[in-house]
Amino acid sequence: MAAGEEVKLLGGWFSPFSHRVELALKLKGIPHQVLQEDLSNKSPLLLKNNPVYEKIPVLIHNQKPISESFVILEYIDETWKRNPLLPQDPHDKALARFWASFIDDKLAEAVRRTITTQGEQQQQDVKKATEALEILEGELKIKGKRFFGGETLGIVDIMLGWISIWLGVIEEFAGVQVIDPENFPVIEKWKRDFLQVPAVKESLPQRDLLVGYFENFRRFKLASVPAPGN
Q1: Transferase as a keyword (predicted)?
Q2: Angle, in degrees to the nearest 10, between helices 207-224 and 109-116
Q3: For the chain, which domains are there?
């Protein structure tokens, strides 16, 4: 990084979206400062730098803010060229963007809903999440590589990284099973390989702290949802 550059990440240890950005910075070897946000009492710095959504993560590079994790990842990759996260070939790059969007739009969204739903609706969300994972399992099997990015982590792997720890935590406190290891051998191997990457080990939060955080989050969300007919 050039002398005088300043890189700050407004994030949260509990956030898989913040983890994406922190992991990308570590993989690129970019010196940075992580500022932990309390979302129940958002800092003036967060409100100033993301006034539209008022959420994390936000990357501040030389006092210029960028928000939304996927947008930030692309910015990082374009700004710091070493250890590229996206393929160089235009077609391969487009495919990587497609799968990155698929992970958020289909898988992460369905899993997110299991946190705040119950009964039949929750089971429908589990089914949608499992179907999305089946598609990713097939895609990684076709690639025949260690990661979606090849032999090293790429942007698709970073986008999917949350299933390595956050998914299991959500399954535990929500009382659901999205991924059966016997049915997803390729994804399970991917998870093991992902967790062995030094930058991943350095940036993951403690599992027991995540369990406590999301248990409280689910309890709050369910309490705030009106009962049917009210």
Answers
A1: yes
A2: 70
A3: 7-79 (3.40.30.10), 90-215 (1.20.1050.10)
